[in-house]
Amino acid sequence: MRIFGLSEANYYCSSFSRSTGDAKGSIDDFQKNHLGTHSRTIAEGTPLFHQYRDCSLRDVERSLFFAASHYRRSLDLMIPSSSPWAHVTLYYGSWYASRALLGMFGCTIFSPHFVVDVGKGSPGRQELRLRRIGNKPGQQYTTFSGTHRVFWDIFYIAVQSLILMVDPHFAAALSPISGDPAWQIQHRNEVNYDSLIGFRLAEDFDRSFSKQGFPSCLPGVLNTQFRILETLLELVYSYARQFGLSTDALDGLGHPSSLCNKVRHLVYAHKPPGLVQKTKKSMIT
């Protein structure tokens, strides 16, 4: 599994060309409609490469926006009764941040069947390649099944080359927790779908939470998931700034402006609408 080097990713991310048509749509639909189901090369200089690059960079910017949004909104859930959903929210923030990181470096995982990664990285002669996920020769290998387990397995394989390039502070977020690529999805599933595990997290949260001690006071898996997302966000936003990433993907939300301005005004400045009085509270209290 190959990703761009830093200078190659910088070139890729700074070459957005505002392709129209399907390049403005879903990257999953683009793969199904334009890349097909057989291994192939997508070479720079062809219309397909420029359309795919624009589509992928738009997906990256949307993913960056939602990663920041989930990070921010998890803070509204930091009470015992909703602490399991805070964990789930942080998990999805981590998923979006990881997807954005891969996208900036030329890789997209179309789980559970296909990946796009780097064939050639040289600026002006870049090539991406579509490959099938599986365990046969020529396929991107994974022993996992299930969309999210496949994603995390391939993510940790892909970013190994980055670990040596980043500050040690970021290395933990680029490595499987406790050596298990499925750690994040396993704990998200347990907290989300097992009411006893979710309730035990709520109990632990109630005993340990302190606003003054946040986030160190967060219990167990919630603490780990918070720190993973926070570290990933720091890394991916630093790369987005370094690479000059800027697309039109977020223009539908307010006036055109930079990603950071969108996050500042739409994620941090916007307040919840206060809808409690609109609910049937008396029915359940």
Task: Please give a handful of descriptors for the protein shown.
single chain; 285 residues; alpha+beta; five-stranded mixed β-sheet; 5 strands; globular
SSE topology:
Layout: H1 6-13, H2 27-35, E1 40-43, H3 47-74, H4 83-104, E2 108-110, E3 114-120, E4 127-134, E5 140-141, H5 147-158, H6 160-163, H7 168-171, H8 183-193, H9 195-208, H10 220-242, H11 259-269
Parallel strand pairs: 4-5
Antiparallel strand pairs: 1-4, 2-3, 3-4
**Which radius of gyration do the C-alpha atoms yield?**
20 Å
Distance between the termini: 53 Å
Kindly estimate the percentage of residues that lie in beta strands according to DSSP: 5-15%
Mean pLDDT: 94
Written account of the structure:
- The chain has helices at 6-13, 27-35, 47-74, 83-104, 147-158, 160-163, 168-171, 183-193, 195-208, 220-242, 259-269; strands spanning 40-43, 108-110, 114-120, 127-134, 140-141.
- It has one domain (6-254).
- It has 11 helices and 5 strands, in the order ααβααββββααααααα.
- Strands 1, 2, 3, 4 and 5 form a 5-stranded mixed sheet that branches.
- Helices cover 51% and strands 8% of the residues.
- Helix 3 packs antiparallel against helix 4.
- It starts with 5 loop residues before the first helix and ends in a 16-residue tail after the last helix.
- The chain is α+β, with helices and mostly antiparallel strands and 285 residues long.
